[in-house]
């Protein structure tokens, strides 16, 4: 009988303290039982055409939501807004090149004109930040202009990695209809995810995007997405399926 009482006491103590200990271990290890942190979903946010006079505001929004993005920047803009360019680097965002002119007739004049623009943009990045990158996104995306002969110079010769996107925010088209942009982004992200792909979202460094970005970040965060940056170790996503 005495042994039975002792067994009951031990059982009660274990029932009281073990769940608390398990919760403490989970907190100590940095693990959460919430769906938001265990879902393992990733999204790559990207911004073209910067830096601009609005980049600091964009970075403030990213910082508020503890999010990072990859910036495909233009050479002259980096030199015009050096403080914003340096902050992009300092806060751990991804670095990409978008060329120099953003004029199709100039950028795509020849394979070497495209190559020279990316080299020029990389030189501007180095001049401002001391950093270089191999990630490139040509103006207006790689199709239809960046054909095989262009890629054969830009990728193996230049050592660049070509990135497009699989989610077009349409923020360049609907600059005043923020709800339409938001709906487009979320619909496409969910569609891409259902196909088993990781969303790479095209947005632009412009005032209109600042209106919709907090809504997108808040919802994606609530759905358990982690905001990561592109890097040269990842397999490039582009319209030509060129993995070089």
TrEMBL record:
Keyword match Hydrolase: yes
Sequence ranges assigned to domain NodB homology in this UniProt record: 41-228
Coiled coil: none
EC number, as in UniProt: 3.-.-.-
Top-tier EC class: hydrolase
CDD domains: CE4_SmPgdA_like
Record bears the keyword Transport: no
Signal peptide: 1-23
Name of the protein: Polysaccharide deacetylase family protein
Source organism per UniProt: Paenibacillus wenxiniae
């Amino acid at each position: 009988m005495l042994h039975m009482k002792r067994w009951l006491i031990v059982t009660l103590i274990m029932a009281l303290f073990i769940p608390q200990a398990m919760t403490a271990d989970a907190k100590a290890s940095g693990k959460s039982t919430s769906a938001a942190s265990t879902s393992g979903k990733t999204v790559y946010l990207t911004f073209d055409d910067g830096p601009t006079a609005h980049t600091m505001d964009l970075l403030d929004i990213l910082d508020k939501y503890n999010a990072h993005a990859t910036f495909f920047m233009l050479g002259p803009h980096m030199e015009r807004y050096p403080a914003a360019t340096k902050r992009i680097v300092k806060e751990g965002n991804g670095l990409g090149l978008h060329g120099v002119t953003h004029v199709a007739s100039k950028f795509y004049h020849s394979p070497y004109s495209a190559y020279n623009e990316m080299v020029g943009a990389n030189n501007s990045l180095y001049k401002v930040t001391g950093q270089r990158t191999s990630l490139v996104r040509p103006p207006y995306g790689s199709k239809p202009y960046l054909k095989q002969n262009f890629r054969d110079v830009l990728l193996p010769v230049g050592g660049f990695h070509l990135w497009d996107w699989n989610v077009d925010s349409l923020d360049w088209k609907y600059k005043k209809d923020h709800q339409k942009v938001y709906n487009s982004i979320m619909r496409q992200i969910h569609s891409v995810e259902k196909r088993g792909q990781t969303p790479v979202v095209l947005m632009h460094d412009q005032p209109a995007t600042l209106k919709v970005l907090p809504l997108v970040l808040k919802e994606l965060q609530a759905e358990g997405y982690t905001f990561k940056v592109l890097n040269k170790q990842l397999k490039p996503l582009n319209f030509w399926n060129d993995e070089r």
